[in-house]
Amino acid sequence: MNQIWQMLADNFSFLLNGVLTTVGLTILGFVGALLIGTVVAVFRVSPITPLRVVGTAYVEFFRNVPLLTLLILIVFGLPDIGLLIPLFWCGVLGLVLAGSAFICETVRSGINTISVGQSEAARALGMSFGTQLRLIILPQAFRTMVQPLVNNFIGILIGSSLAAAVGVSDITNVTQQLNIRYAEAVVLFLLSGAVYLVFALGAGRIGSWLEGLVSTSRIGSAR
Amino acid sequence: MSADAATRVLFDEPGPRGRATIRLATIVAVVLVALLVAGAVWQFAVHGQLAAYKWQFFTYSAIVKTLIIDGIGNTFLATAVAAVVAFPFGLVLALGRLSTQPVLSKVSTAWIEFFRSMPMILVVYAFLLALPRFGVVLPVFWMLVVPMILVSSASTAEVFRAGIKAVDRGQWEAAQSLGMGPGLVLAQIVLPQAFRIVLPNLLTGLVSLLKDSTLGYVVSYGELMQQGKELVAYYHYMIQTYLVIALIYVLINWLLTRLAAYLQVRMGTRKAAAAPVAVDLEPAQ
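YS: structure for the whole thing
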């Protein structure tokens, strides 16, 4: 038991770095995926055919490619065509590309839940496609999307562990390295598992809180 | 198809000015996309990655055998074995979670919640490093498939749970009023209907399993990714090999998601068609 505490104390900053890398990958990945996913979703509902085609192709590719394959393609493939990206940002890029495809579908189904009347009323007031989306459709759509977005977030959190397989020093990778050195697999496995569990549960909590927050502004409306 | 349904909502049939704007935007978009594609092709060309021999490589019969027959074959084998065990196991877990027996329900819930938020690669590493310490040594195939089963059982359990809960309450009540016991109601009335509801989601679960099987790369089990890794080690055609592999995965998963979407639509129309008629005389298949 003492040995285990000693190991944890000796490698505290190493472990902390791992946790921070996981947090960094997840948050940057999620924010990037949210931005790009929303843009691609707008592409997919726009009246401009080439944009719809591009949006659909983008989603079908990145939703169906396994994340590990994508990460390996980025880390080992891109240098072949002269794109050298630092390892951490390779991880972020992979998570953004894969995450945005899933978030695009979340946003698109969010848009579809808004009643046709909202869009018709906006158009009757003379709003353009962009203004309509920005002021009427998307703000309402985001309300129904809180829970699915939390699931997307957890997906990106769990996906970030695959960056360990291509050498990014996230918590999975760090515990794996310590494992090889100390052979304390059970403790280390439980430790990194606990990190994911805590963040996933935390994200769920924040999600419920956010959902409550956005729905209070509905008091006085029909619901 | 679904894009059309979504777009119809957001814009009217455009007038002359609207059509002009759309035409302009279309031209701009086409030019931008063309530039993007040209840029990518340029990057490939400049670094000599378009050389014909680097791509003809994939038509050699030995390479085709390594990637397609061995690689995809092993990917399918791992996915199929994992699905055959994980799906019934998921159903058992779902029934456990829904059961009124508190201990059973708690244990099932804990199992589901634990493995749902556990990254598969962590479970794989645990199997690779922790188990040998206790003297348990599994063949590589099971090093990959057992973690796949554990992780998939949890997500599949939630799919089944949602499906069982989606069966109309009246079905339970009607069956019970006919004197059926709870086991019989489940087996004869509820589960057959739940299966039809969850079928598209099970296909999505199959896609997840197929993606999880790429971790064969970590445990060195010869599925598609691992075969790619070995090819790259010999021939160094990195971007070509991994691009081809990515496209193979996209194609397989795309077909499976299409099938799931088709089943979903087909069931939707069946339901809609059956709704106005009080008695559906057609026997359930």
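YS: worth flagging: Chain B has one domain: 52-267.
IM: good catch. Also The CA atoms of residues 57 and 63 of chain B lie 7 Å apart.
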